[in-house]
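tool=predict chain=A
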Amino acid sequence: MTHRLLAILGSIAFGIRQFAGSLLSFVGLRGLARFAVPLLIVGLAAATFVSARDTAAILGARPDVEQTTLSEVAARSEDAGGSIWFEFDALVDQTHLELPVDRGTFFYLARDPDDPTTGLLVRSPLNDTFFRQRVVTARLTEDDAVIADAVGALGALPTGFDLDDARYLDELDAGGAADTAFVPSQLGEEAPGGELLVTGRVLSPATFAACAVEAGCDGADAAWFYYFADPEGGATTILRSPQPPQALPVRLQGLFQRDTFDLAPVLDSDWFAALDADVPTERAFSAGRRPPILQPVSYVPSIIFGGLAVLLLGSLLAGYPVFGKTARPAPARTFAPGEGIDLEITGRMERDPNVIVLDRSPGALERLTIPELALRLWRYGLLPRDLSRREAEQRFMAESSGETDRLVLHERDQSALVTIDGSTPGLQVETGRLYRVGRSWPALHVRQGATNAYLAIGSQDDRDRAAAELLAEAEGQPG
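tool=predict ok
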């Protein structure tokens, strides 16, 4: 299975190389096709680097949010320079303003927790049921009577909300990391009595807020009931909180900058006239907004380029076809002169003075008599052409006196013929299977000099016999 997968992987680079070769053959440069995949890998690696560098530069140019206080933001002048992106704690009033001339835009009053007389006008696309998102540490409490009293005091929930009528949250502390907190819909599996970090939204405190203390909410032990819902969903629970509806603690993040929004309708409203805090009137704090990036950026192209480069590198290293080695047979000479085994050749075969690259070319491994080999060498153009055929063959036979036959590997269209000679250093023979996409064959891997070829053979018996013949030749066994 491993070799089959490697064959699939290796076929990618092979296919690219073949395609490049077919294009380059029109201009007589097919030999350059071997550089196609390495150049493509280098190009993809360079694209990965450039893309990642540019993306990091664009994201790095984005300012960081400045942790500050509401009073410091309110006191910042337009020409002060520096950041326009702030995050701070605030107390949000229970009232809000929806502009009739600009539906979908809501205004709230946020106060500084340390100086409630200092405030900011806060503009948000979130309405009164979504804007006051809080994170609280609370005890999950099971008390049907308290829940019944709370629902009776708060009134019926709006359509689309689902109330947990068995347990409620008793707030112990405000603040925390929202990304690690539970939401009301996740409390079903939690045991009563536990202290949990929970995030959610307080629904319209001007409408749904009620005193939770029989003696009234004017003392230090005052507490209020609220409906507390999932930030994005309808699951709701009762929240008993010491925070009054006119000063609910929230964490605000957004932009404080001059923009084209006209605040005149806000400043002329009865809602603004009733505010009892000092607020800047030149601009409003835009909650939930972030500094814009002028061009969209993502690391996805870098990941794609890098992934393709790694894939092609793996494909190049895997090679194609893929050869899986097995145990080789004992050396034995069994070929009689004139006998051989048909096979397919893939790889490089020596052809003086160069090499020829073959892919599944029909060929044979044969043992030939010296006269037959002389004739075959003439046909393949491997004897001196400045002599006549008879003279060239006679010279070769004279040089081979004392030999009766030789083992040869040749390609049938007379493009390449290699004499297998055990006296030549470096003859190596490996036995195994050759894997291509969808198929495999018994095969040999033969290396001698410039020859480096896979020999696919029809049957395992013929492969083992050919391997034994080659190994015997490599060891110089006599016939």
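DSSP finds ten helices and 20 strands in the chain. Residues 108 and 166 are 33 Å apart (CA to CA).
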